[in-house]
Each structure stands twice: as structure tokens, then as C-alpha cells.
Amino acid sequence: MGVLVQVPRKSDKKTDPHEGLALGEKPTLKTISRLSGLAVPTVSRALNDAPDIGAETKIRVRRIASEIGYVPNRAGVRLRTGRTNVIGLVLGAEVNMMNHTAQLMTSLTRTLRDTPYHVVVSPRLPDEELLRPIRYLVENRAADGIIFNATEPNDPRVEYLLQRRFPFATHGRDNLAHLHPYFDYDNKAFGNVAIR
Known about the structure:
196 residues; five-stranded parallel β-sheet; alpha/beta; 15% strand; single chain
């Protein structure tokens, strides 16, 4: 006597009625296409704010994307655009700098929260060559830009990045600060306030 086993057909997949996804299905452009009734290229263009896509279509596509938890495939974006949507944050890992480091990371991630960018932190250990984490990010194209702190007057990281025309900013000034973006405290102004 045999045993009857029922094999589920594709159409028998259970779906989450709130999301329109098969259980375990990763949301993709095809998923949004299926749920919206639009072609995949139209969905992609709507998500990328293409000027030839109507406002209502963009709103509908973004609503569906948000509801199902769609996140762009970073590998696909990188292949298509050459961009990583990563900002490399290279920070000294000295213990006495940790509170400053946490504040810098928090401020930067808050600023980037509503952008396609996210932050990847690369610590630079006290006994490590200054250029090592910078070279890694640049040579592996692991970031679209770099921010680093604890600059030195003649900082080799600044020279390296300027020579390669790689986007960067520093937290602190160096002797070439007139050639690149930086953020620093105005110690002269602080001094004037303190003596008043």
C-alpha cells in the first residue's frame, strides 16, 4: 500500500496577507512590479525619481516598497552605477577618543539617515600605519567617500586621497585644508570667549 503525498504547486504558496509576499520571499523590484501591476523598469525608475514617471506612480511604488520592506540590492546598485552608497569612517581607536568617536558616528549617521548612504566604520589601531585603512577602502573601492579624524599637520592620508582624487573630508585641519572639506573647532574663538 502506497502513501499519497501532496506536493504543493507554486500557486499553493502561502502568502502574508499584509504584505503580498510569499513567506520567506525577499522583496525585489519584481515583487513590487507584481504587486503594483507595473513593469520592472517603471518600478525602478519610480524608485529612482525619474522625471518621466508621474507623481502618483512614484507614491504608489514607494508605498508598496515601504510596506513590503524593500531594500535595494547593494551589489546590483554597485554593478549598475559603480557606487557603493557607503561612506567610510576611519577613526582612531584610542581609548581616550572613544566618547568623541561615538559622538562623531552618531552625528554622521543621523545626517545620512534619510539618504541612500550608510556608514562603515574602519578603526585605525594606535600601532597601525595611518594609511592602511584608507588604502584598503580606496583600493578595494569599498566606499564612495571617506571621513577621518585625528589629522596631522602634514597628513599622508590627505596627500594620498588628493593625489587619487578620491572624495573625502577630515575632522580636523591639516596644512592642505584649503584643498579639501574639513570640520574643525575654532579654537581662537573659544579662547576669546573664555577670556571674556
